[in-house]
Design goal:
- There is one protein chain.
- This protein is of the alpha/beta class and 222 residues long.
- The chain has 6 helices and 9 strands; from the N terminus they run αββαβααβββαβββα.
- The chain has helices at 4-14, 37-46, 80-84, 87-93, 141-151, 216-221; strands at 19-22, 28-31, 52-60, 101-109, 114-121, 129-131, 154-156, 185-190, 195-200.
- It has a 5-stranded mixed β-sheet. Strands 6-7 form a two-stranded parallel ribbon. A two-stranded antiparallel ribbon has the order 8-9.
- The longest helix is centred in the first third of the chain and has 11 residues, at 4-14.
- The protein is globular, with a radius of gyration of 22 Å.
């Protein structure tokens, strides 16, 4: 049985730009350049035995590393800062991250009893796009459509790239970090027009502050 370190070594010998790391729980994650993704996918399937695609998802790194809910030393008055501390988040929105969107694929090799996580960063933050691998693993079809719908990542060569979870007239991509919490439009049934109509959002964004009651001796210990 080949080891994960041997698997990483084989990938890097074939593709020098591939980066990888093995976690403390024996999980191998590799990062593949977007321009090489489809070729690497074929190599993984045909040469390294990863015949099955388990999952594909996307990540928005625009707010990566921001922690507004640091409550290690907080007591019952410390939670509101996580709700109203928008200054840092707003400033971060104006800073262009080097690579905002990534496509993450999980693969399984039944023959070698190994799993592999492959991460591909989109080169253009304004119009994120990577190659589709529908012709490599047919199961990825709906996963790529989901990532397109929720993150706005286009998959070049996809045979039928349409929204999957949102409505046809939906505006924006719900899992992007800059998508408003209250949404952008709301829908209701109009009995006069006898149809569903879309309107601008009329509700106010409301965030409830959790109230934590701790025993007196606990607060004294802090």
């Amino acid at each position: 049985m080949r080891s994960l370190s041997h698997l990483l070594e084989m990938m890097q010998q074939a593709w020098s730009q591939v980066e990888g790391s093995i976690s403390e729980v024996d999980e191998l994650t590799v990062t593949v350049p977007a321009k090489d993704w489809r070729a690497v996918a074929l190599y993984l399937r045909d040469s390294l035995g990863f015949e099955q695609l388990i999952d594909l998802c996307a990540v928005d790194y625009s707010t990566y590393g921001q922690v507004n809910w640091q409550t290690d030393a907080a007591v019952n008055e410390g939670f509101s800062r996580g709700i109203f501390d928008f200054e840092r988040a707003t400033a971060a929105e104006n800073d262009e991250v080097e690579a905002r969107f990534a496509v993450v694929t999980h693969l399984l090799s039944i023959a070698h009893n190994q799993r592999l996580r492959v991460k591909v960063f989109c080169e253009d933050n304004g119009f994120p796009v990577v190659d589709s691998v529908c012709d490599v693993w047919a199961a990825v079809n709906w996963f790529e459509r989901e990532a397109f719908d929720l993150f706005g990542i286009a998959f070049a060569g996809h045979p039928d790239l349409r929204r999957l979870l949102t409505d046809y007239g939906f505006v924006g991509h719900p899992l992007r970090k800059d998508f408003p919490l209250e949404g952008q439009v709301e829908m209701r049934y109009d009995p006069v027009q006898n149809r569903v109509i879309y309107e601008p959002v009329s509700i106010e964004n409301r965030v409830n502050t959790p109230r934590v009651i701790r025993p007196t001796e606990y607060l004294g210990a802090v």
